[in-house]
Amino acid sequence: MPITNERARTRSFLAPLYGDAYYPDHVLDKGREILLRLCARIEAERPSDLAGLYALTGAATEEFNALEAEFEAAGSEIETVAREEIAEDFAFVAAAYGFADADVEELIAPREW
Question: At what angle do helices 25-45 and 80-96 cross, to 10 degrees?
Fold first, then answer.
């Protein structure tokens, strides 16, 4: 399903990380896909409240948890810089879909990174 939200569709997710050789592009590509799938799910399911949004972002966060092993296998990790960038992109997605008051920590509550 193509993303229709203009802000989300044109966002360069994880862009600052691509400029740093510490983060392997092939793993970042998977992270970007997680965020794009999150946008598609929000558009398909249209959560009506924060609880609904948090359920969707929680599932996406768990996908990032699973991605940590791929970062490690490539000699990298989801460390402070990456954590901040990922959290910022989650906050961006929430705001782009009308949830500007979402709590970033709640958006990524199940994180293990």
Answer: 20
Distance CA(86)–CA(91), nearest Å, equals: 9
| pLDDT higher than threshold 90 for residue 108 | yes
Residue 69: Cβ-neighbour burial (10 angstroms; 0-12, 13-18, 19+): exposed
Quickly state the pLDDT bin for 68 (edges 50, 70, 90). Answer: very high
Q: Are 74 and 24 in contact (CB under 8 A)?
A: yes
88 vs 34, 39, 56, CA distance in Å? 14, 14, 16
* Separation CA 108–CA 90 (nearest Å): 8
